[in-house]
C-alpha cells in the first residue's frame, strides 16, 4: 500500500526494546516536527482553503499524538529527553527540489511529507507486531492507521495541486531515493534510526 521497497527488519524492535526511553523521546519529537511541518505548510499556502483545513486537522492530531507519547513517558516514570537530529529526515530534506516554481516546491514538500508519514507508518506497524509491551503494541497499531491517513492526504494533495509536475513519476523518484538511504537505518532506537 505504501509503495516502500525496503521493509524494516523486525529485529529493529529488539534495539528499540533495549531503550524504550529513547524511542519514546524520539517519537515525541517526531510528532512535534510533524505538527510544525503542517503549520509551516499552512503558513506558506494560506490561499489553498482545502489544504489549510486538512492540515489543521493533521497538526491537531500530531499534537494529540505528542500528548499521548508524553503521557506514556510519564506513566513509565520517565522524562521527555532532549531532541536529537533525525538524520533520515535531513537526508530526505536534501532530496527535495529547491528550484522551479512555487507550485513545484509545494508538490515536493507534500511528497517529502508523504514519505516521512509512509516510513513512520511502516515502522509503527513493525513495532505493533513485534514489541512485547502490549500497551505499546496497541498504541503503535492505532498510530499506524493515523499515519497511513496522513500519508494518503499529502500524496492526494500533491496530485490535486500539481500544475506541471508528473506526481507519479516524482513519487517514484522519492521511493527510489528513500530505498537508497533507508539501508543505512534500522540500527538505532529511534523512529527512523
Tell me about this structure:
This protein is mainly α. 73% of the residues lie in helices and 0% in strands. Helix 5 packs across helix 7. The model has no long low-confidence stretch (mean pLDDT 95). Pfam families: MiaE. This is tRNA-(Ms[2]io[6]A)-hydroxylase.
**Alpha carbon gap, first and last residue:** 22 Å
**Number of H/I helices:** 7
Shape: globular
Structural class of the secondary elements? mainly alpha
The tally of strands reads: 0
Oligomer: single chain
The largest sheet, given as strand count, sense and whether it forms a barrel, is: none
Give the overall average pLDDT. Answer: 95
Which bin fits the share of residues in helices?
Answer: over 70%
What's the order of the H and E elements?
HHHHHHH
Question: Over all CA atoms, what is the radius of gyration?
Answer: 16 Å
Residue runs with pLDDT of under 50 for 5 or more positions = none
> Strand-residue fraction?
under 5%
Notable characteristics:
tRNA-Hydrxlase_MiaE; mainly alpha; 7 helices; Ferritin-like_SF; Ferritin-like; 193 residues
